[in-house]
């Protein structure tokens, strides 16, 4: 989040004539919905007002020329655990949103746990919004939660502005956010269908989960088989089919889920699914310590290859972080006892780009998965694309620069990540939120959505 005026091709400010623009950002590699080409993106009042030829002569109060550095739309990360209030020592709005901006993410949607109180009714949402106010470097929206006994709270939460409702089908890890059983899932989805909402689901079947028989990663992995995910996904598909509600499967780690998801989509069931950078870039044999632990778990290389195939085919429509940090003391060496959660909010883009380019995918596809897809999921029509009328959320991305991840240098609160020491390709050089640069010295300007 350095000042782009110092690190990029910054032109001297000029007086904008009548009808001129606040900002023009030029790049010979602007990633647009229909492909990559040279262009000048002109911004007025925080909105993209024109997409012009690269060398167009236009008046602007400020102009930046990125040259060969790519210009992307700001990423949308619809799966972030901020944890504030209540567990702010794990992560908070100030640190999470600074990490997001440094990684090219201009919008996050906060999960309803592990904050205290969890966002399961309107008073709790008000507490969450009050905690976030004035702290956010990027825009922040909120998911509500669906837990046993709160079906009457779902419509009021929807009317108060949450983007949908998260539930677990297996224990969440925190007692204040218990899972829904099969009857509870169906009842909640019928209620959500009645007002046109969205259910997002942590899908693992508790009947197929066991306690690890020892402290090692292979023993932990054996305790959470891919069949537990597939069985739970099939349960969600059945509930979506029955209720007519939209449903979305969170953090798919098992490729066994792809077949039922694709079949349900062909049938017309309103179902979608996401995966995460760690499932696409790390394999079980690379797991070294508890900073790699997450639920569902990271699986083998063959499974990873199949997830990439599902992503390329559109069965998986989003790649989001599931940033779920904790303090170091909770990441004990015993995989059975360690807190589960991967910290990757700031480095999801280079992690995915490093792997995607090696597999023959271009930046346009990465933008689809990490910006347009999550924006469409959450219902953010002004986010996710560089086009006239969209929010001027922009990212300068140097797609050939390499760096080695140092956990202590990341902006999120606790210096833990499984990417520590890994060399990645792609560096975020600058981030703009509604046409304003997000820097280390700029006051927080993120909106609560």
TrEMBL record:
Its EC number is 3.5.2.5. GO terms for molecular function: allantoinase activity. Residues 71-438 form the Amidohydrolase-related domain. InterPro entries: Allantoinase, Amidohydro-rel, DHOase/Allantoinase_Hydrolase, Dihydroorotase_CS, Metal-dep_hydrolase_composite, Metal_Hydrolase. Pathway: Nitrogen metabolism; (S)-allantoin degradation; allantoate from (S)-allantoin: step 1/1. Its cofactor is Zn(2+). The keyword Acetylation does not apply. It is an enzyme of class 3 (hydrolase). SUPFAM superfamilies: Composite domain of metallo-dependent hydrolases, Metallo-dependent hydrolases. Keywords: Hydrolase, Metal-binding, Zinc. Catalyzes the reversible cyclization of carbamoyl aspartate to dihydroorotate. Belongs to the metallo-dependent hydrolases superfamily. Allantoinase family. Belongs to the metallo-dependent hydrolases superfamily. DHOase family. Class I DHOase subfamily. Homotetramer. This is allantoinase. It comes from Sphaerisporangium dianthi.
